[in-house]
Amino acid sequence: MSQVQIQPEISVGDIPLDKIDVSDPGLYQNDSFYPYFKRLRREEPVHYCADSPYGPYWSVTRYDDIMKVELDHATYSSAAHLGGIAIRDNPNGKKMASFIGMDQPNHTGQRKAVAPIVAPQNLRNMEATIRQRTADVLDELPRNETFDWVDKVSVELTTMMLATLFDFPWEDRHMLTYWSDVSTADFDAPGALVKSDEERLDILKEMGQYMGKLWEARAVGDPGFDLISMLAQNEATKDMSRMDLIANSTLLIVGGNDTTRNTMSGGLLALCENPDQFAALRADHGLIKTLVPETIRYQSAIIHMRRTALKDTELCGKAIAKGDRVVMWYVSGNWDDEFIDDPMAFKIDRAKARRHLAFGAGIHRCVGDRLAEQQLQILWEEVLKRDMQFEIMGEPERIYSNFIRGIKHMPVRIT
Asked: Could you read off the pLDDT of 53-70 as tens digits, one per residue?
């Protein structure tokens, strides 16, 4: 079984501990973050970085400590007006907020408004549609020629799923993926879709106008079973402002897009890089049940989540002051060898495979986690049904971001 390939630790060991800054997006684009977090978990699991492009921040790097922060909502806030959920302060946090950028009790009511769309019965209702679309996409892929798996499979499948969840005009469905990419873009990334907060907000306001028209039509119609109808007709959300509609639409689009899309790509990459695991999967299709959460852990599509300290507190002997930025690095917790056995290895039969941090925890755990797992499970079921053989034809192009661990392009050939 192959292991994740990392740069030699000697270079990381030469860096003074107080100079380590894991907020650098280049670490994730180059896939070179592993030794930094290994050192922090070992030497200073709650680490203070006094100087970064985003301001000073605390890094929480061990699985158990991340869980402590996740579940202590009285001490650590997600509120948009205090900075929000990313290491970079939310520039519009005082003007707009989604429910992930709220604390209790406001968070709970708004989250409940959309939760029915991913209830078990509705997941069962959507299964046939997801399976047929997946089958169609796989059957249309070229054989014996190189194509971009991200574009032809990962983006296409998740975009169709988003359009279904929003009951979005089918001919415009790729706008959903575009808005998702705009909302998470790093301004310094090569070829970034937007280069400033103002430019991003202008595009998201255009999204708000589009969503607003759908909202107005559905607010007075019969009860609908889509995300816009649910928000427009629920008591907790029906009076939200247009800016809050933009924030919640962005949250739901990104939430329904990035983890699934990037795990579809990262999962194929991991299987091709670990042919013994792919062979084991072909021999026992029942391993899909543990393959899916293992690929979600291994990809860790959400790199971090941030909280703001509501009061002076202490974590692992470190004094955290009220107002401090506290960053939970999921990519570190998901490779914590004190909690996860042999975390650098890709094991499709991993025991307790669903014990990972890729979906978060507590009241802010990803509302669509089961839908993401369902889409991934169906993808691999349909791949195995066709006995598809893959070859990665070049180095995948990873995105430049410290928030989304994504793959932008991945050349693949079906042999």
From this structure: 999 999 999 999 999 999
Instruction: Give me the phi and psi of 284, to 5 degrees please.
Output: -140, 95
71, 357 Cβ separation under 8 angstroms? no
Q: In the structure encoding, which two tokens stand for residue 108, read together?
A: 């709970």
Q: Of the candidates 117, 47, 92, which has an alpha carbon nearest to the alpha carbon of residue 327?
A: 47
Structure tokens at 79: 């509120």
The number of C-alpha atoms within 13 Å of 348 and in the hemisphere containing its C-beta is 28
Q: Which two tokens stand for residue 273?
A: 């890089």
Q: Which two tokens stand for residue 308?
A: 């703001």
Distance between CA atoms of residues 193 and 408, nearest Å: 13
**Amino acid identity for residue 227 in this structure:** L
* DSSP letter string, 378-409: HHHHHHHHTT--EEE-S--EE---SSB--EEE
Q: What is the pTM of this model?
A: 0.94
Give the whole-angstrom CA distance, residue 257 versus residue 181. Answer: 9
3-state secondary structure of 92: coil
Which domains are seen in the chain, by residue range?
A: 9-414 (1.10.630.10)
Q: How far from 91 is each of 1, 212, 228, 275, CA to CA, in Å?
A: 45, 22, 25, 45
Which pLDDT value is given to residue 363?
Answer: 87
